[in-house]
Each structure stands twice: as C-alpha cells, then as structure tokens.
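Query structure, 278 tokens:
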C-alpha cells in the first residue's frame, strides 16, 4: 500500500513537469525518481524489519519473563506450603511444650507448698528446742537461745529454705546433745544469794550438776531449780558436800590424780527440786 502511494505521488510529480521536458530528460528524471523511490522503499522496508525484530524480541522477553514469573510463583507456592506445614508443626510443639510447662508449674507449686509446710514444721521444732533451752541450765543460755530464734525467724520469713533450716537445726540439736554430755570448768563472776559478787570456779556436768567454789575455797554453791525456767544457788552445804565439790573441781583442774569422782544425786539440779517439792 505504501509503495503504491509513493509511486502515485512520483507519477503525479512527473506528469506535472514532463510537458516542458525532452524525452531524454524525461527518461533520466524517471530513472532518478525510480532510484530515489527504490532507496526510500528499501529504507522503509529496513525500518519495518527492524520494527518486526524489536517486536519479536519484546515478545520473546515477555514470554521468558512470564515463564520466570510462573516458575517463581510455583516455587513460592511450594515454599508457602512447606512453611505452612512447618508452622503447624511448631504450633503443635508449642502446645505440647505449654502443656509440659504447665505440668512442671503445677509440680513446682506442689513442691513450694510442701517446702512451705516443712519450713513451718521446722519452725515449730525450733520453738520446742527454744523451750528446752529455756528450761536447761543457765550456761550461755541467751546465746544458745538466740541462735534458735534466728533460725526460726529465717524459716518463717523464708530467708532459709527447709534444706538449710534442717541442716542448721540438726547442728543446734547436736550442740544441745553435746551440752548434756560436756564437763566444763570455767572462771566466772558469780552473784551469791546475798548479792555479793565473787570470783569463782564454775563446774558444769552436763545438765545434771552446776556448782561453784571461790578461789579461797570458802564459799560454795550448788544450782537448784526453783521453777521450769529459773534457778537459785543453794549455799547451805554440809561439809561432806563441800568436800566432794572441792575434790571434783581439783581433779578437773589436774591438781589431783585422775580417778573416779562421785557427786551425790542430792547435788543434782533435778534432785534438789524434787526434795524441795517434798
């Protein structure tokens, strides 16, 4: 169609100018027009081919891009399906772990309740031990009682767990058992019943006997229980009782040869209480 239009235009131009030209000139002009038209047609055809090539390239790129997109879409769908399955698995695992955690928390709450109960029971035993110490001989009694009270407070405030509390209570009980077996001699200031203070040697034999004698061996005293928690000194001792106390203390000091020394039960704390009751 384009070729026909170009030829028609050229013929019209040639017809307009051929009336005044010679045949040779006319032929030359026609040849010139022909060549010009051929060149123009060739250029147009080249442009058409180029345009077709570009169209084919674009169509190929579009096809390739579409294929890539379709491939990517399939891959994404597969990945999404895989991720969906993994998500479901993780949710199942989370539910399972949550159930396990809840079970462990219930167990922990049970353990905490048991530990709290044990702590209170140990605190109760501390109170019992405190009462026992309060009724024992007044030998470092305040310090011994203070350790038990401190343990009881730690247990009630949960500053010490039952395991620690049990270990500490066991140690305190062991000390009190040892206290009942010890034979101890110390220099102490003693206030006699008349209010005077003397420097005396104090002998304690377990929880049974507690006696004193001054440095000059002039004043003697034997501890006697007056109530569950209070004691008094019995100082009106017979000569025989004084001699037995003096000999016992001298053996403990190493001033006499070791041997069996006996103290009458009448000098024991509990025996004197029974005699007083009688």
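Result returned for the query:
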């Amino acid at each position: 169609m384009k070729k026909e239009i170009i030829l028609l235009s050229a013929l019209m131009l040639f017809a307009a100018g051929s009336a005044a030209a010679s045949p040779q000139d006319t032929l030359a002009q026609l040849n010139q027009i022909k060549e010009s038209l051929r060149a123009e047609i060739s250029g147009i055809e080249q442009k058409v081919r180029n345009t077709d090539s570009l169209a084919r390239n674009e169509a190929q790129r579009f096809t390739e891009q579409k294929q890539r997109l379709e491939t990517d879409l399939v891959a994404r769908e597969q990945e999404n399906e895989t991720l969906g399955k993994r998500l479901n698995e993780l949710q199942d695992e989370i539910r399972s772990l949550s159930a396990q955690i809840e079970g462990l928390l219930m167990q922990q709450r049970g353990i905490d309740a048991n530990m709290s109960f044990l702590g209170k029971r140990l605190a109760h035993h501390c109170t019992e031990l405190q009462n026992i110490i309060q009724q024992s001989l007044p030998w470092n009694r305040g310090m011994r009682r203070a350790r038990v009270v401190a343990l009881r407070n730690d247990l009630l405030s949960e500053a010490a767990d039952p395991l620690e509390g049990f270990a500490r209570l066991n140690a305190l009980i062991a000390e009190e058992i040892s206290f009942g077996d010890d034979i101890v001699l110390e220099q102490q200031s003693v206030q006699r019943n008349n209010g005077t203070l003397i420097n005396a040697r104090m002998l304690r034999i377990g929880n049974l006997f507690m006696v004193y004698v001054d440095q000059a061996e002039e004043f003697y005293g034997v501890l006697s229980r007056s109530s569950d928690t209070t004691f008094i000194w019995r100082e009106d001792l017979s000569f025989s009782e004084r001699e037995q106390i003096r000999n016992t203390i001298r053996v403990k000091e190493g001033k006499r040869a070791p041997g069996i020394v006996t103290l009458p039960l009448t000098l024991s704390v509990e025996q004197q209480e029974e005699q007083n009751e009688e």
